[in-house]
Amino acid sequence: MCSVTLRPALPADLDALSALEQRCFDSDRLSRRSFKKWIKRQHDGLIVAETPERELAGYALVLLQPGTRLARLYSIAVDPSRRGQKLGEQLMDAAEDYAHEERRLYLRLEVRKDNAGAIALYEKRGYRLFGLTPDYYEDHEDALRYQKRLHYQPADAARLHLPWVQQSTPFTCGPACLLMALAALKKQTPNTTEELLLWREATTIFMTAGHGGCHPMGLAIAAKQRGLSAAVWSNQKGALFVDSVRDPDKKAVICALHEHFVKTCRQESIAVHYQDFTATDLDRAISNGKIVLVLISTWRLDGRKAPHWVAISGSDEECFYIHDPDPGEDQAPLDCQHVPITREKFEQMRKYGQAKLRTAVVLGA
């Protein structure tokens, strides 16, 4: 066992971290600028291993995803001269302890498919394989995705069968989620043109600012026309998204489109339930193989009070798992897939606007 002190990185560690990164990796290196950013933020998840001789022997970098119970082991490195001394396990202990102290339920990581030693270490520590990302590294090697439940492993683990689709514009979260459902239920390959066509069919045209978002009935109609079964749940019966729109002309347009969607749902025999879609309903839909799209407020994710569609990829007794189609500026796509949200926090997230709109679209084959 290597005798080291594990502590958060300090500004004085920047040169040593950069040099260590050069010694440890031939490609996919973290830049000096990245290390400087995390040190400047006083990010306690950048953990260094310091020897009694004040040398840096390794580090682990854990990132926390805002608004979720998910942590990600973004990078871990051990100086080549220190390998074989179980320093990697010490750093993993520190990474898991940090994520646990920050009340994260899962720690996730990616590892090269050809890195047998690291894979053996992770599996020995209880990490479970849950995905593969082709062509992930600079040399085109695939990445295996592992995760570990930091508190306990529930009997009813999340179902991780739903493909993830990234929205290509700031306003097509709903269509991107519908493309996920079409990929899962109809094996349809997602594409940007279809995403934009779906938005054109389902949009309310106006929102508080920018392009209009998608109406739940609009999404249900678009899904039905592409061969899926669809049902809508809404705790409001009148026009949606009008409470924060001041312009009377814009309100008139939103109301007109709402009435059109109501009429079309009636014509297409799409069930519209004017009641809340509860956690029990969501669990039942998932167990029956349905894909559920839910409107949330992004306040607890990024501090903005914007309406945003996400797809539910699974559930267990403590969490719902979401596919968020929008990585934003600070997140990697991998951080937006199967994101664990505690049931309590999810209840808080799935209310939008002053009227506390709760709405969902339930899709089946």
UniProtKB/TrEMBL annotation:
PROSITE patterns: GNAT. The keyword Mitochondrion does not apply. Residues 4-151 form the N-acetyltransferase domain. SUPFAM superfamilies: Acyl-CoA N-acyltransferases (Nat). Keywords: Acyltransferase, Transferase. Transmembrane segments: none annotated. It comes from Alcanivorax nanhaiticus. This is Acetyltransferase. GO terms for molecular function: acyltransferase activity, transferring groups other than amino-acyl groups. PANTHER family: AMINOALKYLPHOSPHONATE N-ACETYLTRANSFERASE-RELATED (PTHR43877:SF2), AMINOALKYLPHOSPHONATE N-ACETYLTRANSFERASE-RELATED-RELATED (PTHR43877). It comes from the Bacteria.
